[in-house]
Amino acid sequence: MFGIGGGELFFIILVVLMLFGSDKIPDIARALGKGMAQLKNATNEIKSEIQKGTQDAGLDMNTLTGGVSDEIAKAKEGITKMVNPIENINLDVQNPIEKVKEDIESITGPVKRQL
């Protein structure tokens, strides 16, 4: 949880107890809970307003977000190609080597004897 270990969490609780006392902690927790609920409701209202606005404008959120997802996938693929250029190079090395071998074997006369 937020990168906090058990010992750190225990220390934070101990400091809070020392600062506010055991009688104020339930009030603080209640206020924090109400604040989190209000924040969640506000974000849900904003999300619903955005969805309502896009529906009124005749836009579909799924197609909009799908396009963004496609662009993100293309960008990731491009970055991967830039990071690993050797994997993306499609060189056909075997065919030129075979071609050279065939050319050497097809040479006749004094040149072949020198090799």
UniProtKB/TrEMBL annotation:
Coarse class of the protein's main subcellular location: membrane
Alphabetical list of Gene3D superfamilies matching this protein: 1.20.5.3310
Cell compartments where the protein resides: Cell membrane
Any GO BP: protein transport by the Tat complex
One GO cellular component term noted in the UniProt record for this chain: TAT protein transport complex
Name by which UniProt lists this protein: Sec-independent protein translocase protein TatA
MF GO annotations: protein transmembrane transporter activity
Pfam families the record matches: TatA_B_E (PF02416)
Transmembrane spans: 6-22
Keywords from the UniProt entry: Cell membrane, Membrane, Protein transport, Translocation, Transmembrane, Transmembrane helix, Transport
Family: Belongs to the TatA/E family.
Function as written in the Swiss-Prot or TrEMBL entry: Part of the twin-arginine translocation (Tat) system that transports large folded proteins containing a characteristic twin-arginine motif in their signal peptide across membranes. TatA could form the protein-conducting channel of the Tat system.
Membrane topology: Single-pass membrane protein
Quaternary structure annotation from Swiss-Prot or TrEMBL: Forms a complex with TatC.
Highest taxon of the lineage: Bacteria
Keyword Transport: yes
